[in-house]
Structure formats: structure tokens, C-alpha cells
Amino acid sequence: MDVQSWVDILRSSKKTAFIHDDGKEMTEEYDLKTDELIVRKWRHKSTLGAQGEWQVEVGESPAGPVTSSDSEVIKENCSNPVFLRKDTKTSFQWRVRNLPYPKDVFSVFVEPSDRSIIIKTSNKKYYKKFSITDLDRSQLPLDNSALSLTHANNTLIVSYKKPKEILTLEQELLKELKKLKGTGEGDVDCKTQ
What we know:
This protein is α+β, with helices and mostly antiparallel strands. The chain is about 15% helix and about 35% strand. It is built from 3 helices and 13 strands. The protein has helices spanning about 5-10, 135-140, 165-180, and strands at about 15-20, 25-30, 35-45, 55-60, 65, 75, 80-85, 90-95, 105-110, 115-120, 125-130, 145-150, 155-160. A 4-stranded antiparallel β-sheet has the order 1-2-3-4, with no helix packed on it. A hairpin with a 4-residue loop joins β1 and β2. α1 packs parallel to α3 (about 165-180). The longest helix has 15 residues, at about 165-180. It is globular, with a radius of gyration of 19 Å.
């Protein structure tokens, strides 16, 4: 799918969520004051047609504890690394919390053979491989020079400068979104028959 066809899909879609012929559903939340994307999540239908779980692409998932049938609570250790994507206007950005190592331990690079970015530490304590779905959808190449990283307060921040094609796409999408009337939380029109 090239950039223009992605723009056409976004233009022609209902902006609260859109469903493809293949059973995919996407929903996005924007900050109306700053025009920043807060959350983007996808849901796919199962083979039998049931709605699947939401997969968060951008933003934080509302994680709650997983409970067993014995009413015991099982939850992750709060000191485990937490990986999430939070974009800015000019960069795709990933944050990895709870990484107490110095900045010089981290290595971030593009792996062109499988269109992914790899974060690893020289002390072999952390490894993460991920792709940039926005670039994959638009079939744009990955560029190692667009990567940068910072580390502060036990959080590693990896940034990838958005290509001009993506910036243009996002500007066009924002123009479309500005035409819509935003609703506040709980202002959903629930008509009954």
C-alpha cells in the first residue's frame, strides 16, 4: 500500500473507527488542542467472526491485573521494562521505562533485511526488535540516520524522524479531522429502536 492509497482510505473512512473488508477495525484518539495522536489501536475479527482484543499501536494500553479463577491476582513486576510508543509531531517515538543502565550501554540500529529497529544492551540485559507500522503501510524505506536516542530517569527514548511523506499524510489527515465535530467523553449518540 503506498502513501496515496493510505490517504484515500483515511479520507473515505468514518473517523471514529473504520472497518476494512477483512474485519480490521481501527480507532484513534487525538488531543483537540495540540492535534497530537494519543492512542491508535486495532482489532481483528477471528476466523469465526468474533471480535478480537484491541492491540495498541500508539499510546499506552489500559493494563489491569490478570485474575485467575481462584481470585488470585497475577501481575507483572513493576520494575520490568515497559515498552510503548508515543509519537511527537516530527518523530515516531518509543519509550522504554525501567532501564537503569547508562546511555553508553545501549545500541539502537535499523535492520533493513526485515524492516525493523533493534534496541540492545552491551550487557545483554535488554533486547527489543520492532517495526514502524506507519512506514510499512506506506512502503517507505528505513534510514539509520533518522534514529536518535536519549536516556534519562531510567527511561530510554528512541526517536525516528518522520519522513516528509508521512508528515504530508498526517497534515492531510488533520485537515480531514478538523472538518469533524469532536465529542467529549460520554457524548456518544446511542439511539435505540
